[in-house]
Amino acid sequence: MGALPVFRWRLAPDGYATRRQLRALGLRPGGQDVAAQLERPRRRRAPLVAHLYRLDLAKPVRPMTKAKWAALAKANTARRTCPHCHRDAGYVIPRTLGTCVPCFEGEAVA
Questions:
Q1: pLDDT of residue 1
Q2: Are 79 and 93 in contact (CB under 8 A)?
Q3: pLDDT tens digits, residue range 33-47?
Q4: Side by side, which strands form the sheet with 45-54?
């Protein structure tokens, strides 16, 4: 097994893409291994690394099924429901607070 080719930031050849770039094209890695790396040098720290995948081996994104949409809706509802007052907060409750803002402010005052 050989080492991965390493390219400097913004100098990767055509035919490679990151996960985000693949997703923007409606593709996914499809089980392929990382084909190359991009490295962005930084001062006094380790370089930033981005993994690259081959475009010719990428597969189309799988479509969302009704069950997946339902599971996603249920998960988002759970993130919006306050565990203290059990109401839908109307926004995703921050993990740092753990409750909706009115419940958090009520606990801070008491």
A1: 47
A2: yes
A3: 999 999 999 999 999
A4: 6-8, 36-42, 45-54, 16-17
> Residue 22, class by beta-carbon neighbours within 10 Å (0-12 exposed, 13-18 middle, 19+ buried)?
buried
* Backbone φ and ψ of 19, nearest 5°: -60, -45
Fill in the DSSP letter of residue 98: S
Task: Indicate the SS3 state at residue 108.
Answer: helix
Please give the single-letter amino acid code of residue 53: Y
Contact predicate 34/40, CB 8 Å: no
Three-state DSSP class for residue 43: coil
Structure tokens at 94: 């921050």
Instruction: Give a three-class secondary structure readout of 46-93.
Output: EEEEEEEEECCCCEECCCCCHHHHHHHHHHHHHHHECCCCCCECCCCC
- pTM, two decimals, is 0.69
